């Protein structure tokens, strides 16, 4: 009986994770509008599962900031992020990611192969979005977000500070919130990949100051584009 109970628990956990991933793709893909109500029973019907894994997934989803729980009213998609919130978010990313560049730079020779690979994957993901513009596949949108963020995570990982890595990871979903226009068929892929390339080149043949300047220029670009979209 104990073995059977353990197996059922693992299956339930796997189902909850699958439901969570599917709802996350839908949120990042712009399937739902900002502040749209999210019915647990409705999502359960759409996903052909019971309400329980949906409810468990939504509780976990609250921590991302992509959804909100309203007292006695269930869940809704988070409202659009404000320009003030965008500025504050980018300010914190600058503090953390410029420090990550500073600490990672002495390990440039070791990180460069991974950074080149991450950049190549980001470019492929962007080209897929451009090719599919107007009828985007959720998998392509998720791939684009993941590839973009992974470029930054390579640098953060080589900073060799788990506390810094955890702090930046906590901002990942908030970063996605300001770029959900991808779900509507547009992206900043051309600018972002060019800015990432400048960061890559700075690590490959520039100085520490060049790498810091390239990362700051990229984050300033993200800020400028995000505020333009929000307005």
Automatic annotation (TrEMBL):
<dbReference type="InterPro" id="IPR011711">
    <property type="entry name" value="GntR_C"/>
</dbReference>
<dbReference type="InterPro" id="IPR008920">
    <property type="entry name" value="TF_FadR/GntR_C"/>
</dbReference>
<feature type="domain" description="HTH gntR-type">
    <location>
        <begin position="13"/>
        <end position="80"/>
    </location>
</feature>
<keyword id="KW-0804">Transcription</keyword>
<dbReference type="InterPro" id="IPR036388">
    <property type="entry name" value="WH-like_DNA-bd_sf"/>
</dbReference>
<dbReference type="InterPro" id="IPR000524">
    <property type="entry name" value="Tscrpt_reg_HTH_GntR"/>
</dbReference>
<dbReference type="InterPro" id="IPR036390">
    <property type="entry name" value="WH_DNA-bd_sf"/>
</dbReference>
<dbReference type="Pfam" id="PF00392">
    <property type="entry name" value="GntR"/>
</dbReference>
<protein>
    <submittedName>
        <fullName>GntR family transcriptional regulator</fullName>
    </submittedName>
</protein>
<keyword id="KW-0238">DNA-binding</keyword>
<keyword id="KW-0805">Transcription regulation</keyword>
<dbReference type="Pfam" id="PF07729">
    <property type="entry name" value="FCD"/>
</dbReference>
């Amino acid at each position: 009986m104990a073995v059977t109970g353990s197996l059922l628990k693992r299956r339930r956990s796997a189902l909850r994770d699958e439901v969570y991933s599917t709802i996350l793709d839908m949120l990042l893909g712009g399937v739902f509008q900002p502040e749209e109500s999210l019915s647990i029973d409705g999502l359960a019907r759409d996903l052909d599962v019971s309400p329980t894994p949906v409810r468990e997934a939504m509780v976990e989803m609250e921590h991302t900031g992509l959804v909100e729980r309203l007292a006695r009213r269930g869940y809704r998609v988070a409202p659009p992020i404000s320009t003030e919130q965008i500025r504050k978010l980018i300010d914190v990313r600058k503090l953390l990611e410029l420090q990550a560049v500073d600490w990672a730079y002495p390990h440039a020779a070791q990180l460069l192969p991974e950074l080149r690979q991450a950049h190549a994957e980001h470019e492929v993901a962007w080209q897929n979005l451009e090719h599919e513009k107007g009828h985007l596949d959720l998998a392509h949108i998720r791939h684009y977000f993941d590839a973009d963020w992974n470029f930054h995570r390579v640098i953060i990982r080589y900073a060799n500070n788990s506390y810094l890595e955890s702090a930046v990871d906590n901002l990942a979903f908030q970063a996605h919130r300001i770029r959900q226009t991808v779900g509507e068929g547009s992206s900043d892929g051309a600018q972002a990949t060019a800015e990432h390339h400048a960061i890559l080149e700075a690590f490959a043949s520039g100085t520490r100051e060049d790498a810091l300047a390239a990362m700051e220029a990229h984050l300033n670009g993200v800020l400028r584009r995000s505020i333009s979209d929000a307005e």
